[in-house]
Design goal:
Blueprint lengths: L3 H31 L22 H16 L5 H14 L2 H27 L3 H29 L9 H9 L8 H14 L2 H31 L8 H51 L1
Helix pairs in contact: 2-3, 2-4, 6-7, 6-8
């Protein structure tokens, strides 16, 4: 029979092993349950910060699969990996997408509570400031979308300056380990050029301005023909409004001039009739 101390030690070791494996299994279950949750911070833990909206089901799947595929395919570009993940998501069955969607719904409920708690602590001045910031963000996004769409529609490139033309011609041969160093070298060279040496590039810049002026005029005319006035430059839109206002003003003046003689004749007739009536009354009396 084994000594009592040895039996006790064996039981203690077995209990510890059982606790270890129990904790390990519990941790594994937690990892499995949270594997579909967002791997990045989606909600703010500080009351003073605005909580961030949680990622939807698709973005959760992307955040989960991207590091896996990137490690398996180190030579593949990230954009290609994301494209592959998007293709996988499109062909996934609804029951396969459900865990990601459920995780989003769960986090979204928590987000709503956090957001309401955050809004309740704001002062009127802070609310007004947030409204202004939101309006500015939307305006910037709108301007970026407009610029991208205009480029897609073939908007001409802006004219280059004399220095930009000089830099593009001598960039490859410029000294410097990187782009910034090369640009500094070219700028120093440009400053040391004589006036007659710069004149060539100045003339090229003037020609490029003429090119841009002609191309942008034709492009904007085409945009107006196809009903895309929203892509016009702000300068052109303001000019159109000013011309329309001047035309409307001239139209009103023209109408007034036409109506003035008639008004005078009506006034003259009324005056004559009034004088005649007054004369008749005086004769009767």
């Amino acid at each position: 029979m084994a000594p009592f101390g040895l039996v006790t030690a064996s039981v203690s070791l077995l209990a510890k092993s059982f606790n270890f494996f129990t904790c390990t299994n519990t941790l594994a279950r937690v990892v499995v349950r949270t594997s579909y949750r967002n791997q990045v911070k989606c909600l703010s833990t500080q009351a003073s910060e605005r909580p961030k909206k949680p990622l939807n089901g698709y973005m959760r799947y992307v955040m989960q699969q991207k590091p896996i595929l990137a490690s398996q395919n180190p030579d593949v570009k990230i954009i290609d990996i994301v494209s592959k993940i998007a293709q996988e998501w499109r062909v996934m069955k609804p029951e396969q997408k459900q865990p990601y969607e459920d995780a989003f719904l769960l986090d979204n409920e928590q987000f709503k509570k956090e957001l309401q708690r955050y809004k309740d602590q704001l002062t009127p001045a802070q609310i007004e400031q947030q409204v202004i910031e939101k309006r500015d963000r939307l305006a910037r996004r709108k301007a970026i979308r407009k610029k991208r769409e205009a480029t897609t529609m073939g908007k001409p490139k802006r004219p280059r300056s004399a220095f930009n033309i000089y830099m593009s011609e001598h960039f490859e041969e410029a000294k410097g380990e990187n782009t910034q160093a090369k640009m500094k070298t070219l700028y120093d060279q440009w400053r040391n050029l004589f006036g007659n040496q710069k004149q060539v590039y100045t003339q090229l810049a003037e020609d490029d301005k003429i090119r841009y002026k002609n191309e942008i005029k034709s492009w904007e005319e085409h945009m107006m023909e196809i009903g895309r006035n929203d892509l016009l430059r702000d300068k052109t839109i303001s000019s159109q409004k000013r011309q329309a206002a001047q035309a409307e003003k001239a139209k009103i003046k023209k109408k007034v001039k036409k109506l003035t003689p008639k008004a005078k004749s009506r006034t003259a007739k009324k005056t004559k009739s009034t004088v005649a009536k007054a004369a008749k009354k005086t004769k009767k009396t």
